[in-house]
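Sequence, structure tokens passed on for absentees:
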Amino acid sequence: MKRNNLLKAVVLGCSILILHSCGIPKVATQESNITLPTNYSEKVTQSDNSGKVRWKDFFEDKYLLSLIDSTLVNNKELNILMQKVNMAQNEIQARKGEYLPSVGLGAGADLDKVGKFTRNGSVEENLNIREDEKFPEPLTNYKFGLYSTWELDVWKKLRNSKKAAVMEYMASQEGKNYLVTNLVAEVANSYYELIALDAQLKNLEQNIEIQKNALEIVKLLKESARTTLLAVKRFEAEVQKNQSEIYNLKQEIVEVENKINFLVGRTPQPVLRDASNFMATTPKFVNVGLPSDLLENRPDIKQAQLELEAAKLNIKVAKANFYPQFGLKAGIGYEAFNPKYLLNSPESLLYSIVGDAIMPLVNRNAIKATYKTASAKQIQAVYEYEQTILRAYTEVINQMSKIENLENSFNLKNNQVEALNQSIDIANQLFQSARADYMEVLLTQRDALEAKTDLIETRKNQMLTVINLYKALGGGWN
């Protein structure tokens, strides 16, 4: 009869717990519904994708390849992020251990003296362990044994928590890959900026030599009274202006070199490079493939997707807090007041097993808030995932358009430079024959210098755009 009453009480208690857990607040969830176009444009339909090409195969300059290789080994930001990846991996191990039984070995010894005029004291006063031997005073106690606790993961709370940790770890890996992509692009961009500065410095020095030659001619014409001192001074001022610009370029070169050194993770030093054929170098052709390739190639998109999956699992984890938690506790060992009795069986043997079920009944605001927060984070992760896809697609479109426009601009600027170079010879001849003013010569030389500088800048932008398109396609991390 008592057993039936106990069983009824257990069933009633469990029913109350389960029914109470049904009062879970409803929260909003959201799925991503973003879709990408089939092609980037009607003109571009190739399936090949340069974003899948390894950076060692995409870049050809041996000095650049060496710099990238050193960067991926020594860059401090990358090494810092690698430790965060390791921490995320450790979190998986920690959460995995939460849903496995924990077993420990315990041992202890204690000493107890109670007052004589107390309940325990009066019992000890009248209790003998054996005839003619009083109860030990003070009483010692020795014990050792195995103790285990285990939370039964009935609602998969702990397993979902572990899966979420796995997703977060994989997301951190993709975050590392995205940093690698950015580092590869940043080193390559800085390298070609440095080469472009070398080309500008060389162009400026060549232009100064032309202006010095023109200055000597003007001085000779001045001596023969065919021009004035004003012309001589204007030519001298133009030479000195360009000579001062050399130092500005040299400072920029030092700063870009040190930017590269910082990325490589080393102290400031000259950067080895080959700038001899910069203007003759044709920008590499990039195959953009299909927009859907971005979902596979871009580490930031994969990272956002994994974080979205982790957010979904965290909702399940938060929801499980409303349900009863079931646990088991067990122990087995030996306990005795005297060490010589410690291993006596079954006299000193002890064991226990306890099962419990608990859940909050009153004031569940904290649990509700956690559940709602998990839902809000899931919706936030959806928006971040969609935003990442849109940003990736837009970056590719922008770089594709920029490549085409820069190519047209370069061709026109190249024609301009050729025309102005011819104009310099014509202006010098006309000036020597007194058929042109010295200002026409100065302005022609100045225009030629600016046009050649713009041409170098355009070529640099072409190289950087190719690199940025490669990065936008997800290239560089593999």
